[in-house]
Structure formats: structure tokens, C-alpha cells
Write a structure and sequence with these properties.
By secondary structure, this protein is an alpha+beta fold. It contains five helices and six strands. A six-stranded antiparallel barrel has the order 1-2-5-4-3-6. This is riboflavin kinase.
């Protein structure tokens, strides 16, 4: 794992996405700005990752479990690479234009396409379950106290 890109720490501004995550798939996502996506190292391939997220918003000092999708979203015939984070927490409101800090700790699966939206939604729910279980480990928990999230 000497060439592993993990952990990968980044932060960026939340922008409007395609509006599919919450509406079509029941999985709201925070979409990172293009500059943040462009800074991803080439060693982070198109796929689904797990890690921690912190929203830099007044009154919210929590660090949440998260799943992040990096890629072109082949199910939707996407051409542009995006980075979308689903935070395992229900927020009362959207947080566009806010800053989100994340650490990617590991990969769940490679990006792939699906036969239909139901298949995709089921895979997303499995990704969320996998991430939640992995993040319960002591190894993953150590990042909760990392200086990246204290700044």
C-alpha cells in the first residue's frame, strides 16, 4: 500500500449538482466545485469511497460518516468528472456555497453502470451500509481527532 492515495484530505465549496441524488435516488449529495475535483490525484480513480466529513458551518462542529462518489456517473451517461458526497446525517436545510472538509479513507467499489435506477439505488444503499460498518473501526476512528478537522 506504499502507493495508496489514502488517506486523502480535501475541502471545497458545495455547488448545485444535477438534482438527481435526492430526487431520483433518495440519497442527497453535496457536490464539490470543479476546482476541488480537478485537484484530485490521478491515483483516485472513478469509484465510491468512504470516510469522514465536516461541514464548516457556524454551530456545527460534528464530523460525520460519509460516502463519496468520484467519476462521470456512467448510469447517466455523464461526461464530466464530479465528486459527490453523501453525509450519513439528515440536515434540516441545504448548504450550498458552504465549505465541506472530507477525508477519503478507502475504496468501496469501482464506478460502474446499472440496468436501471432501482439497481443503482440499491447499490448506493449497500455502499452506505458498507461505509458505516468500516467507519466503526478503531483504524478509521483515529481520523476524527486529526488536525485537518480541528482547523
Amino acid at each position: 500500500m506504499a502507493n495508496s492515495p489514502f488517506p486523502y484530505f480535501t475541502s471545497g465549496t458545495i455547488v448545485h449538482g444535477f438534482g438527481r441524488g435526492s430526487k431520483e435516488l433518495g440519497c442527497p449529495t453535496a457536490n464539490f466545485d470543479e476546482t476541488t475535483v480537478e485537484k484530485l490525484p490521478s491515483s483516485i480513480h472513478q469509484g465510491v469511497y468512504y470516510g469522514w466529513a465536516k461541514l464548516l458551518k457556524k454551530g456545527d462542529n460534528e464530523i460525520y460518516k460519509m460516502v463519496t462518489s468520484v467519476g462521470t456517473n456512467p448510469f447517466y451517461n455523464g461526461e464530466k468528472k464530479t465528486m459527490e458526497t453523501h453525509i450519513l446525517h439528515q440536515f434540516p436545510e441545504d448548504f450550498y456555497d458552504e465549505t465541506l472538509k472530507i477525508v477519503l479513507i478507502g475504496e468501496i467499489r469501482k464506478m460502474t453502470t446499472f440496468e436501471n435506477a432501482n439497481e443503482l439505488a440499491a447499490a448506493i444503499q449497500n455502499d452506505i451500509s458498507t461505509a458505516s460498518n468500516k467507519l466503526d473501526s478503531d483504524e478509521c476512528g483515529q481520523y476524527l481527532k486529526h488536525s485537518f478537522f480541528q482547523q
